Amino acid sequence: MLSKTREMTAVGEGSLPPATEKKHKMLATTKKAHIFCICVLAFMLVQWLIFFVYGNINSILLAFRYFDPESQTQVFYTGKDIFKNFTDFVGDLFSSQDPLGSYFLTGMIYHLAGLVSLPISLVFAFIIYKKMFASGFLKVVLFVPSVISTMVIALLFKTLLLQGFRGFWTNVLHYEYSDFISPLADVEKAFPTLLLYQFFFALPGSLLINIGSMSRTPEELVEYGRLEGFSYFQEFVHLTLPLMFPILQIYCLGMFVGFFTAQGPLYAIYGDGKGGGIPEKAISFGYYMMVSVISDRGTGVSPDFMYGYTAAANLLIGLVSIPIVYGTKKLFDKFDPEADF
Predict the structure, then answer these.
(1) Which helix or strand (DSSP H or E) is residue 27 part of?
(2) Residue 146 to residue 144: CA distance in whole angstroms
(3) Taking 50 as the threshold, does the pLDDT of residue 278 lie above it?
(4) Torsion-angle region of residue 267: left (phi > 0), alpha (psi -120 to 50) or beta?
(5) 320 to each of 121, 130, 260, 307, 327, how far by Cα in Å?
(6) Helix or strand or coil: residue 261?
(7) Which letter does DSSP use for residue 84 in this model?
(8) In 49-181, which residue ranges form alpha helices assigned H by DSSP?
């Protein structure tokens, strides 16, 4: 009775009961948390609207424009010319007089070099995971390119071919110093040299993810396989790969997404190609599209003239890639072993 009287007296003096006061504090804290979450989400939403929605809408509209040198602006095509950028791109792609078709084929070959390295990369990851012979050596060889910048690796590769081969050319073969041409600048040797680079440096791709996924294989399944007489090859095929199927599916879908726009290591090695230096046979479609909008490549043609053309090309490639990616996903779903950890 006395405590109740004190509580009533406290309420009469303007203060709240402890339970009510605690409830009000919790509501205030919750309100601040909601405001903070709304501000963070609003920032992310504005960023998405500016950099994704606006950027993509502007790229789509750019596909229907051309650069007017008099007004120095991008102007919309009108009438029957509205799809001119698209028709120009398709015409150049299948024309025997334009090198765009050969660029396209070269980029696909670069991309396939990375595709071929995927199963070998999985085998190397399995060797490291099982701590087999030479696993320590593979760790060093494959992990170093993963932690060093791509530009640094490309510079080392370029310097090695230039200085190392030049020393071999003059000191071992005893040829004239002035007659030496770097394989990266040689018309016939540049493309196979870049293929070798693409293949080797695609091996460390996602190595940590592969090893981590393999390490999650239940030890009970591994022991059961040993009791059944499984070899390392059978364990890799019948236990490890089925459990990694979702990751393998993502790898393959990612490869199909970049199949048409692959450029290989060209920009890291040759830059924008201004002033020459890159053989014509080594140029890929993705590289050509990129440098066309960032540099005149010594041609004297402003990149502004290429914006509409490249936007139309990438939009058309995107439209073609969508059914290919979804079709590939459905095909992979049919072969899904539905294995789980």
Answers:
(1) helix 18-48
(2) 5
(3) yes
(4) alpha
(5) 29, 41, 10, 20, 12
(6) coil
(7) H
(8) 55-62, 84-93, 100-129, 135-147, 150-159, 165-167
Residue with tokens 């003096």: 13
Distance CA 261, CA 250 (A): 18
Count of CB atoms situated within 10 Å of the CB of 326: 11
Contact 312, 86 (CB under 8 A): yes
pLDDT band at 252 (very low <50, low <70, confident <90, very high): confident
Question: Which helix (H) or strand (E) segment is 67 a member of?
Answer: strand 65-68
Question: Which tokens go with 61?
Answer: 């509209």
What is the residue type of 175? Answer: Y
Is there a contact between 204 and 189 (Cβ–Cβ < 8 Å)? no
| Of residues 19, 234, 18, 211, the one with CA closest to residue 130 | 211
Q: Which fold has domain 96-334?
A: MetI-like fold (1.10.3720)
d(CA 181, CA 185): 7
Is-contact 341 216, C-beta < 8 A? yes
β partners of residue 76: 65
* Partners of 68 in beta bridges: 73
Query: Residue 222's CB: how many other CB atoms inside 10 A?
Result: 14
Q: Give the best-scoring range by mean pLDDT among 13-27, 163-177, 301-315.
A: 301-315
pTM: 0.73
Report the run of H or E that residue 76 belongs to, with start and end. strand 73-76
Q: Is 75 in a helix, a strand, or coil? A: strand
Residues in the chain: 341
Helix (H) or strand (E) holding 202: helix 190-202
- CB-based burial label for 24 (10 Å; 0-12, 13-18, 19+): exposed
Residue 74 sits at φ, ψ, to 5 deg, of -85, 125
Contact 282, 303 (CB under 8 A): no
